Every structure is written in C-alpha cells, then in structure tokens.
Amino acid sequence: MGLGPPFWCLRPLSTQFGTLRAACAKAGAWPVRSQRGERVKYIIAVIKPFKLDEVREALGGIGVAGMTVSEVKGFGRQKGQTEIYRGAEYSTNMLPKVKLEIAVADGLAPQVIETIQQTASTEAIGDGKIFVLDLAEVTRIRTGETGETAL
Question: What is the spatial distance between Cα 148 and Cα 151, in angstroms, rounded to a whole number?
Fold first, then answer.
C-alpha cells in the first residue's frame, strides 16, 4: 500500500516546471493531460514495409498531421523465415518491419487505430501490431505549446 504522491507533487500554481511535471507524472501524481485538460494518445504501429505509403496516405486523409517512421527488425509468431540465396537455404530470425509513432488527440485515436488496422492488413501472418499509450505531456520546442496544440 503506497503512501501517495511525494510532497513535491502537490500541484504547484505555476506549471512551467516541465521536469517537475514529468517526475510527478511518473510517480502517478499528475494527470495525463495538458494544462488545458486535453488528453493525448501515443500510438505505435509495427507494420510490413510495403504497406507504409498506403497507411501514410490513409492517415493523412483522416487528419493526422505527422508521424515518425523507423525501419526496424523483429519477429513474433512467425519466428523468422527461410530463404534461398544462390542455391543455399538459410533462415533469418528477424524480419524487416516499419515502426510508426504517432501522437494524436484522444478523440482521434480510435479512428487512427481503425485506419491503420484496415490499411495495413494483408490477412496474413506478420501484419504487425498496434500499441496505444497515454502520453503524459507534449511540448512543441519552438513555441512551448503543450497538449493538442503542440501536435
């Protein structure tokens, strides 16, 4: 049984102390929303590489303003694959995938998830996964805006 949040998380009048807010959020004492009460979701999707352009266009069509894309390798239930190169068979245990990272307003998250799922699906093993997390805080570096306005 916990004793509650540390005394220094008792919501200071000024919220300009981003480090303090982050530490309090980690301790579970700060809500997952910006100063204006806006909630933000962080969506991570791992998809097949050839589906990237189709997914990006579909997300742009529903109003997603930006995303981060990384080339990654991994495996799931597939456990890799067997390939033939110059007559010799070899197996690879890591498959190439693309990871999308998207921060969206809470209200847009279900539509983003559905769009990714429908667009990235090939109805075959290895289509990928979608992870959804609450985002404690978003700050635009240039202006200092937070929450949905920073997206």
Answer: 5
> What tens digit of pLDDT does each residue of 22-35 get?
555 555 544 444 45
Closest to 97 in 3D by CA, of 131, 58, 119, 69: 69
Of the candidates 149, 121, 128, the one whose C-alpha atom is nearest the C-alpha of residue 137 is 149
Calculate mean pLDDT across residues 106-123.
Answer: 96
Q: How far apart are CA 2 and CA 97, in angstroms?
A: 41
Spatial separation of the C-alpha atoms in residues 148 and 140, rounded to whole Å: 10
d(CA 39, CA 59): 20
The DSSP secondary structure of 32-56, one letter per residue, reads SS-TT---EEEEEEEE-GGGHHHHH
